[in-house]
Recover the amino acids of this structure.
């Protein structure tokens, strides 16, 4: 076993990479990043001082940042599902959607969630309101983008869908997708039905009490 993923099952960015690994049935070992795993946390901080999970170890090589990890897997451990299209133009569209889900869905979602974890006196109400506004704008843009598309960038499941799945999963819990954005809601349901992401969601079920806004009784 050469691949080891430092991760926690409830983390959205870890679920992004887990979805990619499960898509291709890529064998890997998991190093659990949890409060009672001090040695793993220490190793992780040494390998990646910025301490953002997930992190992949391939032998002595360290790979960080979820999109780069998925690109790395596609390059060095390709499976039946090519998550980055071979065609450079199609790959650009996939990378664009990946950036949109990370920057304009995950980032504002995380902002709202982490704000709620703070003591009331330390909360940033202005920032949280701005984040909600950004999610509304992203939902509106995505609703148009997804019209007539099965997956984010077209017919094939890709890196962009690995990014979208946990982003929309938690964003809807945080700031519900309005009924008027039917394409986004339907796409989120398709992602939840995809075996790779469904597995990541199931593995994270025991940790739902961690969600500071209260995990809704669905999904
Ligand atoms: N840009 C990074 C973001 C990773 C990230 O934000 N991970 C979160 C978990 S979902 C984390 O490690 N949070 C720990 C912290 O904020 O201290 C990526 O794509 O991997």
């Amino acid at each position: 076993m050469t691949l080891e993923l430092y991760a926690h099952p409830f983390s959205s960015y870890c679920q992004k990479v887990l979805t990619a690994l499960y898509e291709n049935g890529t064998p890997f070992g998991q190093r659990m990043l949890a409060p009672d795993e001090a040695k793993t946390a220490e190793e992780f901080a040494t390998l990646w001082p910025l301490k953002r999970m997930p992190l992949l170890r391939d032998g002595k090589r360290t790979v960080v940042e979820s999109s780069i990890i998925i690109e790395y897997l596609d390059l060095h451990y390709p499976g039946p599902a090519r998550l980055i299209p071979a065609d450079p133009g199609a790959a650009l569209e996939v990378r664009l959607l990946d950036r949109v889900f990370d920057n304009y869905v995950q980032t504002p979602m995380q902002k709202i969630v982490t704000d709620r974890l703070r003591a009331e006196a330390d909360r940033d109400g202005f920032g949280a309101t701005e984040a909600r506004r950004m999610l509304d704008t992203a939902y509106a843009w995505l609703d148009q983008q997804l019209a007539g598309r099965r997956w984010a960038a077209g017919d094939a499941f890709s890196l962009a869908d690995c990014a979208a799945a946990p982003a929309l999963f938690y964003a809807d819990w945080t700031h519900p997708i309005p009924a008027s954005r039917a394409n986004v809601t339907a796409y989120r349901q398709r992602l939840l039905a995809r075996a790779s992401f469904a597995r990541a969601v199931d593995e994270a079920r025991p940790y739902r009490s961690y969600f500071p806004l209260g995990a809704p009784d669905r999904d």
